């Protein structure tokens, strides 16, 4: 045992420890991510696949594996209620996203004018987002109920002919969903835009002012294009709120009057879980997925590609 | 230390001993509204007096839709409750899938076949063996009324025909009340419609249309006439029916805002809870033109297959308890229904229950006994859902002609069947 001997052994031990640390450093992130990846693969993609398989079967009350081809899809498209639900989603989703974007942007621009009490106002507008959609639905159900809410109030002020009975009118009920959902989400969109606006350099405004551009023009030609990534995330978030809207419908209209405010999500639930038509319900779930993909993939593709080029 | 130890050992031993013949069984039910919750609690107390434990698994939601959803997810995951409230043709479906146990032992011991009406016990048998136990008989075709409101409106007696009904409705409306309280939920729309259909078409037609699902009956002139009468009822209701729960509608009758309601006799529980006496504070009569008919809704408890002997015993004990004369009396008084045992005297029941039994006997003798479609007694859940869709859509769409609704009814039933 010479001193050098023990020295070299110590150093090699240290090197071993270092390489262990190195391996750990390399492996640890994967180790940490692996369970959630596995869970996501199984519970998201696995169940998507299962739903697709079920949509090809004649499953009724419980899953069965008697394959019937595309028969469930044929039944789905022959179903009156499905057409109502799909049309409703287009109306509801389109209006909801558009109004939220416009309203959110307007609120954000007004709040960005260095006004007093901005913090308090911001909280007030953002607050509805803190409520669950069930609460929003119940509150608006009372507000929109003709004999309890807004109509009764205005009539009690003396405007006897005032009518606001959208909630009980099959043709208009879908718009009550839009009202409630916009109330809930536009404050959140405002916050997104506000954060975006704050990220824009003040010198841009000053330079534009020097060039003689009016303020609306500055917003339209300069600020808005800068906010494009914010619009992108806002649309993403709003679109998924719109497509998975279920609790709001349940609390606000219960799908009624009749099934006038049925959305694909409530259609799917009713058929899969309460009516013992798992096959048909799965087919509608797959159609929802296809709808989402049809909108999102081109959008994602164009947005991401452009950003890479830019 | 030592005495404590022996105490613990003793307790463990005692627990082990009771384990042999007592068990905890989970009971899924949807009796959560006023009178119904009271009734469920009563059953629980009775079972616990026998030494078993009732693990309550109540899922709210009138009609049991949510409860059935929960039951399915529990069954798919391989963990169904020991006992679940299921009714009508659904019991057969669960039985055919092999989920249900066999309680013939207690049925034979207590000779169920002797006192259960065969029309009803058929629902609880799978391949000739009892797999479920019926609890009560609800009648659907009732007209509930607030006599004070009727008097104020100048209506002397409850309407016997639909023409009388609409004449009375005008008087009630003119006096400033809502003629017919209703909640705009699909099952309530269907409840009212099936009562109208029974009256307009008669029991045989009802069976042809809603049990046999005969396409000719579904598109016939009688069906169109029933649909038209049904749609006309919209005018006797207030404009805010959308989404209203049935018990809120009942409370409109109780508080004197509305005059009448068409609803099964579970509504009686709400009147009783409000401290009202039948034939004095409120009236119950057969809905127009359905005097000798009885559309029934029978609650049953189905027994799921369990391996544990203690649990099997607990299931049998529960089944025996449910059909004991004593329980049939107290329970049905609280629930508003009538005993499913034909040999239980109704002497100390209220007037509504007595007239319900009379109607049942008369209907049984004359062939006027029909299963309620709106309450899942007549057809499978998918056909029922399809009928609900058409009925509720027709009722809420001011522009849809009855002829078109009848055609849609036939095609929706065909597609769902």
Report on the structure:
The complex is a heterodimer of chains A (310) and B (417). By secondary structure, chain A is an all-alpha fold. Chain A has a single domain (80-309), classed as Orthogonal Bundle (MetI-like fold), CATH 1.10.3720. Chain A has helices spanning 3-55, 71-77, 80-111, 118-126, 133-144, 150-156, 173-198, 202-210, 215-226, 228-243, 247-252, 264-274, 278-309. The mean pLDDT of chain A is 85. Chain B is α/β, with parallel strands linked by helices and 417 residues long. Chain B contains 19 helices and 15 strands. Chain B has helices at residues 2-21, 34-49, 65-76, 89-96, 104-109, 112-115, 118-121, 147-153, 162-174, 186-210, 215-218, 221-232, 246-254, 267-273, 309-323, 325-335, 351-366, 381-396, 402-416, and strands spanning 24-29, 53-58, 83-86, 125-126, 129-130, 132-134, 136-139, 142-145, 178-181, 258-262, 283-286, 294-297, 300-303, 338-339, 369-371. In chain B, strands 2-1-3-13-6 form a five-stranded mixed β-sheet, sandwiched between helices. In chain B, α2 (34-49) links the parallel β1 and β2 (53-58). The termini of chain B are far apart. The relative contact order of chain B is 0.17. Chain A binds chain B through residues 60-63, 75, 78-81, 141, 145-148, 165, 167-168, 170, 173, 253-254, 256-260, 270-271, 273-277, and chain B through 65-66, 68-69, 72-73, 75-76, 93, 97, 184-186, 238-243, 380-382, 384-385, 389, 392-397, 408, 412, 415-416.
């Amino acid at each position: 045992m010479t001193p050098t001997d023990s020295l070299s052994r110590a150093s090699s031990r240290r090197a071993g420890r270092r390489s262990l640390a190195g391996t750990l450093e390399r492996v640890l992130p994967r180790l940490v991510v692996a369970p959630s990846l596995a869970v996501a693969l199984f519970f998201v993609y696995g169940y998507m696949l299962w739903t697709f398989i079920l949509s090809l079967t004649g499953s009724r009350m419980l899953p069965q594996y008697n394959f019937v081809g595309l028969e469930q899809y044929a039944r789905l498209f022959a179903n009156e209620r499905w057409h109502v639900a799909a049309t409703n989603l287009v109306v509801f989703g389109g209006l909801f996203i558009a109004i939220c974007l416009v309203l959110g942007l307007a609120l954000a621009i007004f709040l960005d004018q260095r006004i007093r009490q901005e913090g308090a106002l911001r909280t007030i507008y953002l607050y509805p987002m803190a409520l669950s959609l069930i609460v929003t639905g119940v509150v608006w159900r009372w507000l929109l109920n003709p004999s309890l809410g807004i109509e009764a109030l205005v009539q009690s002020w003396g405007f006897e002919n005032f009518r606001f009975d959208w909630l009980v009118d099959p043709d208009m009920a879908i718009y009550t969903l839009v009202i409630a959902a916009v109330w809930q989400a536009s404050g959140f969109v405002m916050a997104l835009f506000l954060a975006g606006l704050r990220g824009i350099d003040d010198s841009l405004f000053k330079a534009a002012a020097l060039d003689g551009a009016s303020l609306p023009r500055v917003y339209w030609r300069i600020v808005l294009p800068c906010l494009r990534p914010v619009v992108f995330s806002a649309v993403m978030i709003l679109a998924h709120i719109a497509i998975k809207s279920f609790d709001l419908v349940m609390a606000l209209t219960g799908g009624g009057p009749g099934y006038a405010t049925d959305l694909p999500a409530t259609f799917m639930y009713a058929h899969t879980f309460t009516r013992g038509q798992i096959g048909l319900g799965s087919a509608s779930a797959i159609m929802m997925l296809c709808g989402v993909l049809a909108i999102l993939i081109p959008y994602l593709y164009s947005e991401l590609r452009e950003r890479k080029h830019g | 230390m030592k005495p404590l130890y022996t105490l613990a050992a003793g307790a463990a031993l005692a627990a082990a001993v009771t384990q042999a013949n007592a068990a905890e069984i989970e009971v899924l039910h949807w009796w959560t509204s006023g009178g119904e919750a009271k009734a469920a609690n009563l059953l629980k107390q009775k079972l616990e007096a026998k030494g078993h434990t009732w693990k309550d698994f109540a899922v709210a939601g009138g009609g049991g839709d949510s409860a059935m959803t929960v039951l399915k997810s529990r069954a798919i995951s391989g963990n169904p409750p020991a006992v679940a409230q299921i009714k009508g043709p659904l019991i057969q479906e669960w039985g055919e899938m092999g989920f249900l146990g066999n309680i013939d032992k207690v049925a034979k011991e207590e000779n169920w076949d002797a006192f259960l009406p065969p029309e009803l016990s058929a629902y609880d048998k799978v391949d000739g063996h009892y797999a479920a136990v019926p609890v009560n008989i609800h009648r659907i075709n009732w007209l509930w009324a607030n006599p004070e409101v009727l008097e104020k409106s100048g209506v002397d007696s409850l309407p016997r025909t639909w023409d009388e009904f609409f004449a009375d409705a005008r008087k009630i409306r003119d006096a400033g009340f809502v003629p017919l309280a209703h909640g705009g939920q699909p099952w309530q729309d269907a409840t009212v419609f099936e009562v109208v259909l029974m009256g307009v078409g008669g029991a045989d037609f009802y069976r042809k249309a809603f049990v046999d699902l005969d396409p000719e009956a579904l598109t016939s002139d009688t069906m169109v006439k029933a649909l038209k009468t049904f749609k006309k009822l919209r005018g006797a209701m207030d404009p805010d029916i959308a989404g209203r729960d049935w018990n809120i509608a009942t409370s409109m009758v109780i508080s004197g805002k509305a005059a009448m309601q068409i609803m099964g006799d579970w509504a009686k529980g709400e009147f009783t809870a409000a401290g009202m006496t039948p034939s004095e504070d409120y009236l119950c009569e057969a809905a127009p033109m359905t005097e000798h008919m009885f559309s029934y809704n029978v609650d049953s408890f189905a027994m799921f297959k369990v391996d544990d002997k203690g649990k099997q015993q607990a299931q049998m004990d529960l089944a025996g308890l449910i059909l004991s004369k004593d329980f049939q009396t107290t329970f049905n008084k609280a629930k508003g229904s009538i005993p499913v045992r034909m040999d239980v005297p109704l002497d100390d029941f209220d007037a509504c229950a007595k007239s319900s039994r009379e109607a049942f006997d008369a209907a049984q003798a004359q062939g006027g006994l029909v299963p309620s479609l709106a309450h899942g007694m007549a057809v499978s859940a998918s056909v029922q859902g399809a009928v609900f869709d058409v009925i509720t859509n027709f009722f809420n769409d001011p522009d849809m002609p009855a002829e078109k609704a009848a055609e849609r009814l036939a095609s929706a039933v065909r597609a769902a069947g």
